[in-house]
C-alpha cells in the first residue's frame, strides 16, 4: 500500500484527494489502533468486555468549508469503531493538542491544511498527551486502513458524541491555559498589537487571548467565511499586516496561519521578524532566567546561520534537525530541551505546549517587548541574517545526491565560503527535485554559488 501520511498527516484537495470516504475509513482505522492499545493494556471495554471503558477522541477543525463534511465523516468513522468523541469545533491545532491532554483523551484529531490554500484540507492525529503521532502508529493506522476484515462494534459498544464540553467551553479552557503561561496578570498592558488571524482557526480565540493579557488589539483577517482562509492574509502574506501596523502606529504585528500553529511578526517600523529572530529573542529570555535546558536551541537545517552566530555570543548552542516540526520535537524530546522551532514560525515552548503554537509564541514574544521596554526591532536585531538563496532544481533524480562529482562541487563551494557561509543540498520528500540553499556574506556571492551548484545538479542528476 502506498504511504498516505506525509510529514504532517494526510493532505490533499478536499473532495478529490481527501474524500469523505477516506476520512471515515481513517477515523475507523485510527479507532481500531487505539482500541487495540487499550485492550492490550486491560484498560478498555471497547470490544464489549465488562468493566472497561470506551476510548475517547477529541476532534477540532479550522474554518475551511470542507471541514464540515470531513468532520462528519471523521466522527462517523471513530464512533462506528467504538470510540467516544468530543467535538471542539473551530479551534487552533495546538488547542486540540492541549485539550487532548487536558481531557485525558486517547486520541486527538485535527482537520486542517494549515497554511495551504482553501481548496486543500488535511487530517492528522495526536497521541495521548497531545503529542504528534509517531511513524509506528501511523504505519499501524495505514495497515488497519487496508484491512477491511474486522469485527465492528454493535449495540452498546458503538461510540457516542459527547456533549459535556461544547466548542465555546473548549476555547475558554485553551485560552485560560495560554494566558496563565505569562508572568502575572495583564502582562502585555501598554502594547498596541495588530493581529492577523488568516481568516482561520484563531479568529475568535486569538484576540480574546491577547486582550485578556492586557494588550490593545487591532484585528485583521478575522472574518472567516469558509472560503477565505489564508487568502492574501496570515503568516504567508505579511503585506496587509505591515500596512496595518504602520496605519495604527502599533508596537508589534502578529501573523498566524490558518490553524494557528505558526507565528511571524512585524516590528513597529514595518520590518519582518521571522521564526529565527523570534527564537533568538525567546532563547535569550529563557537563558536569562535559567530555563533554557543545556543552553540549547533546536532549529532546522534551514535556519539562517545568522541565528547561530547571534546565539554563539551568548553561549547558546544551536542543534539542527531535519525540516519539519515533528523532527524538531523529536530532537527536543531526546535532549529534554525547552525551545525549538523553524524559520517559518513553528516555535515549540516545551514548558507549556507539546507542539508549535502561534498564539503562545506571540504572547511570550510580546511579553519580552513589554517587560524589557525595548522595541521588537531592537530585540530581533540581535540576529544579523546572512543573505540566503534557495534554488529548486526540478526534473532530477533526488535519490542520487551522493553523486561523487556533485559532492565534490559542494565541497569546493564550502571551501570558497569558509565560515562566512553555508551550503545545503536537500532532496524533496515528495517531488522529483533537489533544493540548493546557499548562505554567504553577500547576496551576489550566495546567488552565484547557488546557481553554479544548481547547474551541477541538473547535469549530474537529470532524469
How would you describe this structure in keywords?
463 residues, alpha/beta, Alpha-D-Glucose-1,6-Bisphosphate, Chain A, domain 3, 3 domains, 7-stranded mixed β-sheet, 5-stranded mixed β-sheet
Secondary-structure blueprint of this entry?
Elements: E1 10-13, H1 20-41, E2 56-61, H2 67-80, E3 84-90, H3 93-102, E4 107-111, E5 120-127, E6 131-132, H4 135-146, E7 161-162, H5 167-180, E8 192-196, H6 205-212, E9 216-220, H7 239-248, E10 252-256, E11 263-267, E12 272-273, H8 275-288, E13 296-300, H9 305-312, E14 317-321, H10 325-335, E15 339-341, E16 347-349, H11 358-372, H12 376-380, E17 388-394, H13 404-417, E18 422-427, E19 433-439, H14 443-461
Parallel strand pairs: 2-3, 2-4, 3-7, 8-9, 8-10, 13-14
Antiparallel strand pairs: 1-5, 4-5, 5-6, 10-11, 11-12, 15-16, 17-19, 18-19
How would you characterize the overall build of this protein?
Helix content is 38%, strand content 20%. It is α/β, with parallel strands linked by helices and 463 residues long. Strands 1, 2, 3, 4, 5, 6 and 7 form a 7-stranded mixed β-sheet that branches. The chain has a 5-stranded mixed β-sheet with strand order 9-8-10-11-12, sandwiched between helices. Strands 17-19-18 form a 3-stranded antiparallel β-sheet, with helices on one face. A hairpin with a 3-residue loop joins strand 5 (120-127) and strand 6. The protein starts with 9 loop residues before the first strand and ends with a helix.
Amino acid at each position: 500500500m502506498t504511504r498516505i501520511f506525509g510529514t504532517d498527516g494526510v493532505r490533499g484537495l478536499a473532495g478529490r484527494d481527501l474524500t469523505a470516504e477516506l476520512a471515515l475509513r481513517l477515523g475507523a482505522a485510527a479507532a481500531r489502533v487505539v482500541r487495540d492499545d487499550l485492550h492490550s493494556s486491560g484498560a478498555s471495554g471497547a470490544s464489549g468486555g465488562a468493566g472497561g471503558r470506551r476510548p475517547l477522541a477529541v476532534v477540532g477543525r479550522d474554518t475551511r468549508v470542507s471541514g464540515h463534511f470531513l468532520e462528519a465523516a471523521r466522527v462517523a468513522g471513530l464512533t462506528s469503531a467504538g470510540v467516544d468523541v468530543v467535538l471542539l469545533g473551530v479551534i487552533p491545532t495546538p488547542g486540540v493538542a492541549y485539550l487532548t491532554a487536558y481531557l485525558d483523551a486517547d486520541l486527538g484529531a485535527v482537520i486542517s491544511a494549515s497554511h495551504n490554500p482553501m481548496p486543500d484540507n488535511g487530517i492528522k492525529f495526536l497521541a495521548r498527551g497531545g503529542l504528534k503521532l509517531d511513524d509506528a502508529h501511523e504505519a499501524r493506522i495505514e495497515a488497519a486502513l487496508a484491512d477491511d476484515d474486522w469485527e465492528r462494534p454493535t449495540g452498546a459498544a458503538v461510540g457516542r458524541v459527547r456533549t459535556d464540553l461544547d466548542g465555546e467551553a473548549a476555547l475558554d479552557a485553551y485560552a485560560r491555559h495560554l494566558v496563565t503561561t505569562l508572568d502575572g496578570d495583564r502582562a502585555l498592558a501598554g502594547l498596541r498589537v495588530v493581529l492577523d488571524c488568516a481568516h482561520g482557526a484563531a479568529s475568535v480565540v486569538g484576540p480574546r487571548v491577547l486582550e485578556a493579557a492586557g494588550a490593545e488589539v487591532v484585528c485583521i483577517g478575522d472574518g472567516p467565511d469558509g472560503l477565505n482562509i489564508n487568502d492574501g492574509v496570515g503568516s504567508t502574506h505579511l503585506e496587509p499586516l505591515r500596512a496595518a501596523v504602520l496605519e495604527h502606529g502599533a508596537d508589534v504585528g502578529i501573523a498566524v496561519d490558518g490553524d494557528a500553529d505558526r507565528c511571524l511578526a512585524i516590528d513597529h517600523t514595518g520590518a519582518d521578524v521571522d521564526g529565527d529572530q523570534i527564537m533568538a529573542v525567546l532563547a535569550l529570555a529563557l537563558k536569562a532566567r535559567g530555563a533554557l535546558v543545556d543552553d540549547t536551541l533546536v532549529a532546522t537545517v534551514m535556519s539562517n546561520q545568522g541565528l547561530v552566530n547571534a546565539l554563539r555570543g551568548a553561549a547558546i548552542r544551536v542543534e539542527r534537525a531535519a525540516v519539519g516540526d515533528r523532527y524538531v520535537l523529536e530532537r527536543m524530546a531526546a535532549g529534554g530541551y525547552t525551545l525549538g522551532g523553524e524559520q517559518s514560525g513553528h516555535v515549540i515552548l516545551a514548558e507549556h505546549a507539546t507542539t508549535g503554537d502561534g498564539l503562545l509564541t506571540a504572547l511570550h514574544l510580546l511579553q519580552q517587548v513589554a517587560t524589557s521596554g525595548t522595541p521588537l526591532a531592537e530585540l530581533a536585531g540581535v540576529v544579523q541574517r546572512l543573505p540566503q538563496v534557495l534554488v529548486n532544481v526540478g526534473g532530477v533524480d533526488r535519490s542520487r545526491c551522493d553523486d561523487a562529482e556533485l559532492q565534490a562541487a559542494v565541497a569546493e563551494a564550502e571551501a570558497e565560503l569558509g565560515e562566512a557561509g553555508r551550503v545545503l543540498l536537500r532532496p524533496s520528500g515528495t517531488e522529483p527535485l533537489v533544493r540548493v540553499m546557499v548562505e554567504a556574506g553577500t547576496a551576489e556571492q550566495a546567488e552565484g554559488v547557488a546557481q553554479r551548484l544548481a547547474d551541477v545538479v541538473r547535469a549530474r542528476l537529470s532524469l
